[in-house]
Specification:
By secondary structure, the chain is α+β, with helices and mostly antiparallel strands. The chain has three helices and ten strands, in the order H-H-H-E-E-E-E-E-E-E-E-E-E. It has a ten-stranded antiparallel beta barrel with strand order 1-2-3-4-5-6-7-8-9-10. A hairpin with an 8-residue loop joins strand 1 (55-63) and strand 2 (72-83). It starts with a helix and ends in a 5-residue tail after the last strand.
C-alpha cells in the first residue's frame, strides 16, 4: 500500500512538472521552476499559527441534541503535534460522547496553493471522513472553516461550520455548527473549551 501511495505521489509530481513545463513562460528556467515548487511547499506564518496548538490539552465538551435545551457535558483530552516538517497539525482526541467511549483524529494544514486552511476529521462514531476549508481572521484571532458530511440518518450531504477562537497560547475554544433538525437554521451543535495540560509547553 505504501509503495502504491509513493508511486502515485511520484506520478502526480511528474504530471505537475509536465504541465508546468508546457505552461511556463519561455524565460522560466528549470531552476526557477524548482524554486517555485519549493516555495509552494515551504511552511510559513500560517503553519506557525497551527504549531501553537501542538501539545497536550484538557477539554470540556458541551453538546446539544435540542438547541433550546441544556447541553450534555463531558470531558476529554487531546494530543496534537506538527508532522511532515511542520506542515500539518495532527490531533488525537479521547473522551466520551453520549455515555460511550469516543475517539477522533484530525489533520489541519494550510494549502499555499489554495491560500486556505484545509482539514479532515474522522472518529469512532462513524465511517466517513469530513473535509473542510476556511480562513483565519487575524483581528478576531478566529479560524472559520466550512465543510460537509453525509448525515447517516437521512443519507444527505449536510453543511457545517467550524469556528476556532484562539484565546491565548494556552487556551482556545472550538464550536461546531450545523442545521437544526428539519430546518436550514444554523444552530450550535457542540462547544469545546481547551486548556493546555502544562501551561507554556
Amino acid at each position: 500500500m505504501r509503495a502504491l501511495a509513493l508511486t502515485a505521489a511520484i506520478c502526480l509530481g511528474l504530471a505537475g512538472a509536465a504541465i508546468a513545463k508546457d505552461e511556463q513562460p519561455a524565460s522560466m528556467s528549470h531552476e526557477d521552476m524548482m524554486k517555485a515548487y519549493a516555495a509552494a511547499a515551504a511552511p510559513g506564518a500560517a503553519h506557525a499559527l497551527l504549531a501553537k496548538s501542538a501539545g497536550h490539552w484538557n477539554a470540556t465538551v458541551k453538546s446539544w441534541q435540542d438547541p433550546a435545551g441544556e447541553p450534555m457535558v463531558s470531558t476529554g483530552t487531546e494530543e496534537a503535534e506538527m508532522i511532515f516538517g511542520g506542515r500539518y497539525l495532527q490531533s488525537h482526541f479521547r473522551g466520551d460522547m453520549m455515555g460511550q467511549p469516543f475517539e477522533g483524529m484530525g489533520t489541519l494544514g494550510y494549502d499555499n496553493g489554495k491560500r486556505k486552511y484545509v482539514g479532515t476529521w474522522f472518529d469512532s462514531m462513524g465511517t466517513g471522513i469530513m473535509s473542510y476549508e476556511g480562513d483565519y481572521d487575524a483581528q478576531k484571532q478566529e479560524l472559520v472553516c466550512r465543510g460537509s458530511y453525509v448525515d447517516p440518518l437521512m443519507g444527505v450531504e449536510t453543511k457545517v461550520r467550524l469556528v476556532t477562537r484562539f484565546l491565548s497560547d494556552d487556551a482556545h475554544t472550538f464550536e461546531f455548527w450545523g442545521p437544526a433538525p428539519g430546518t436550514d437554521k444554523e444552530v450550535k451543535w457542540m462547544e469545546m473549551s481547551y486548556s493546555r495540560a502544562v501551561a507554556g509547553r
